[in-house]
């Protein structure tokens, strides 16, 4: 019975460890942007057509998503390395 309990706790432990690593990576980013929904794109007035370019907004959002995906992949790689070395991560420090 303990084996099943430990198996159930392992993904939660790994998930929280991944979360901590990802948060640490995000904190290191200086220019991390959020996606822009820019609702005004769909209410595009004809006199401001140059100001709101939907393709630029989509390209920007795609770039932001790629940045977040890169951070997640980095967190997963770091977690795997730490797990293979049996390090303990607590309070944002490796011991």
The helix content is: 55-70%
Determine Rg (CA atoms, Å).
Answer: 20 Å
Estimate the global geometry from the Cα principal axes.
elongated
Termini gap = 31 Å
Strand order of the largest sheet: 1-2
Order of helices and strands: HHEE
Number of helices, where a helix is a run of at least 4 consecutive DSSP H or I residues: 2
Mean pLDDT: 76
- Characterize the main sheet: 2 strands, antiparallel
Count of structural domains = 1
Describe the structure.
The chain is mainly alpha-helical and 95 residues long. It has helices spanning 2-28, 54-85, and strands spanning 89-90, 93-94. Strand 1 and strand 2 form a beta hairpin. Mean pLDDT is 76; it is low at 1-5. The protein has one domain.
């Amino acid at each position: 019975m303990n084996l099943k309990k430990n198996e159930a706790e392992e993904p939660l432990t790994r998930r929280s460890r991944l979360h901590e690593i990802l948060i640490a990576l995000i904190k290191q980013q200086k220019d991390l942007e959020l996606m822009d929904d820019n609702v005004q794109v769909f209410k595009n007035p004809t006199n401001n057509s140059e100001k709101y370019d939907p393709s630029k907004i989509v390209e920007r959002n795609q770039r932001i998503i790629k940045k977040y995906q890169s951070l997640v992949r980095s967190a997963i790689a770091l977690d795997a390395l730490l797990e293979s070395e049996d390090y303990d991560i607590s309070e944002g420090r490796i011991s």
